[in-house]
Amino acid sequence: MKNRKRAVVIVIDSLGIGALPDASLYGDEGSHTLDNTSRAVGGLRLENLASMGLGLIEGVETVGGVKGPVASYGRMKEASAGKDTTTGHWEMAGVVVRRPFATYPEGFPPEIMDRFVKRTGYGFLWAKPASGTEIIQRLGAEHIETGKPIVYTSADSVFQIAAHEDVIPVEELYRICRIARGFLDDYNICRVIARPFTGRPGSFKRTARRKDFSMEPPGETLLDRLKSRGLSVVGVGKIGDIYAHRGLTEEIHASGNMEVLDGVEEALAGVKSGLILANLVDFDMLYGHRNDARGYARALEEADSRIAEVKKNLEDDDILVVTADHGCDPTTPSTDHSREYVPLLVCGRRVNSGVDLGTRESFSDLGQTICGFFGAGRLGDGRSFLDLLLQ
């Protein structure tokens, strides 16, 4: 294939823009991560995203609309059953998840925990839903005394294992997680997450050495397809974890929004042809789940200016996509993800600007469009909107 062009996709993790029609089934009526955050802090300064057309997207009320936006704009509706990071990312890469991942609001059953004990050789504490920061404060001292890891879950399909780094070294914690990953596919649990922490009773603190062990996507993704065609596929941030490290030619590890955007700049300097996919995790992890609207707003304004810098480094045939994977409204009583529409902003020097892409019926439309952009055929799910973009 003749390819000397790049697609950069920046996922603002959890930037929902309004409740989906079926949000009531998930307890998410009234969620609107962007608008509710803006109202909570008295308004947002998002000059770059506004110039791309964020305020012109249906359902967005708190970002001013502009005349002559520099990007095409729209919103995407999740077709998969769920509202988590993995489901959203898999769908935007062309794989719709039709069977919901399993969740355990009452805690993990004895069958699962018995297998955990037998396979790992460790006992456990808790094994029920909990806030990660709260559970280590509550059970951290007992964990140190007994050596038993703390197991917990949330509203998502996750099996989280927390351990003090001085009690269970990080590499041993990762080994335990790999063992758990090996049998939790049987229960359709999406992610096993290592949650190391340090400190003393009363002041435990989670470290940056979190690691996700994800189930593999059940079908061919956009990443798989492009890699098989000899193109570069670079994942920045936690992308490797989300796709079970499949379909990537390079992973750039970064632990925060600004580091991730540094990684995008690094990839742009080195990649000549292919996909650069990045996830800005702080929005979800640090602010959405902690109901910190001010932190969320501040992070949005910081990312807005940095995304403007990424735009400046695009070459003639490149495209930039800014989107999200779900919502996580920091202003609602819930601290869980919210089932929302996500923004779709696409720009490039050869991309039509000012086109209303409307409401896409699936995130997979994005994957199908990028696949077509590279002349890499069709994926299993999604309807391309490439014909609306190219001049």
SSE blueprint:
Blueprint: E1 6-12, H1 33-41, H2 47-52, E2 72-76, H3 85-92, H4 110-120, E3 125-129, H5 132-146, E4 150-153, E5 158-164, H6 170-184, E6 191-198, E7 205-206, E8 211-214, H7 222-228, E9 232-236, H8 239-242, E10 250-252, H9 257-270, E11 274-280, H10 282-288, H11 293-312, E12 319-323, E13 342-347, E14 356-360, H12 364-373, H13 386-389
Parallel strand pairs: 1-11, 1-12, 2-14, 3-4, 5-6, 9-10, 9-11
Antiparallel strand pairs: 2-13, 4-5, 6-7, 6-8, 12-13
Helix pairs in contact: 1-11, 4-6, 9-11, 10-11
Number of domains: 2
Query: For the largest beta sheet, what order do the strands appear in spatially?
Result: 10-9-11-1-12-13-2-14
CATH class of the largest domain: Alpha Beta
Shape: globular
Summed up, the helix count is 13
Question: What is the share of helical residues?
Answer: 25-40%
Could you state the order of secondary-structure elements as H and E? EHHEHHEHEEHEEEHEHEHEHHEEEHH
CATH domain fold name of the largest domain: Alkaline Phosphatase, subunit A
Question: How does the major sheet shape up?
Answer: 8 strands, mixed
CATH architectural type of the largest domain: 3-Layer(aba) Sandwich
For this structure, what is the CATH homologous superfamily of the largest domain?
Alkaline Phosphatase, subunit A
Distance between the first and last residues' Cα: 20 Å
Q: Low-confidence segments, ≥5 residues, pLDDT <50?
A: none
Q: How many DSSP E strands?
A: 14
Protein structure class: alpha/beta
Radius of gyration based on Cα positions: 21 Å
Percent of residues in beta strands: 15-25%
